[in-house]
Amino acid sequence: MAERVRVRCPACRREHLFAPPVLPCACGAPVAPPVVRGADPEPVSERTWADDWVTLRCPVCGRHDRWPRPELGCDCGTLLRVPVQGDPAPVAPAHIPLPRTAPAPRAAFQPVAIRTARDAVTAAALYLRWLGFGDVRRADQRPPSGVGLAARGVVAQVEPSVRPATLRDVECLWLQAMTESAACVYFSLAGYADAARGRADELGVPLFVLDLAGVPQPVNSPADELLAGGA
Fold first, then answer.
1. What does the alpha-carbon distance between residue 37 and residue 18 come to, in Å, rounded to a whole number?
2. Are residues 77 and 130 in the same domain?
3. CB–CB of 212/114 below 8 Å?
4. Of 18, 20, 118, 185, whose CB count within 10 A is highest?
5. What is the pLDDT of residues 110-122, one digit of tens each?
6. What pLDDT score was predicted for residue 37?
């Protein structure tokens, strides 16, 4: 549990003992936002992505990731955003590739032609297995759109419709992966909205577009790295 600090509500001057939430890093280590002692909390009047998240560095593996900024509900009804000291990190992307030894050569990927939504899901599952993720299956948790897949250490989402994946789609997949301490991969038949691609680059989410031949094509740097190194 994170260390408790005293937080005073600027609206009613009531004082609270507050402990920031502890969440797991992808490596499994617990990470808690370092609350700034003595700083006044800020009442939340409206929400934006930049205000709701803070970039922190895992003290165990050194990974930089976005974490929910801690909030506290006062008894007077005011929602307070508690100031934290964000660890310095690159602006984008948050994903930092690590050096790899040369992987063993993989056999050529054997695609399946995509004619139906089911074919798209099958193509994505085969590709995950080809990358080295074993025991690919339907995810227990159904995503807001598309079809969810899961394997050991990874969750994936497949959007088989003609609708480009949105920023919300990418963020929801990333949050699910953070909750399960897993990596994540997105496959889309119709591509991605510009905002979705930008957020995926910031969060380090690999994006692939499925062509009708059933071959996933990487569309950002995290996807290129996953293709090059495998699971």
1. 11
2. no
3. yes
4. 185
5. 989 999 999 999 9
6. 78
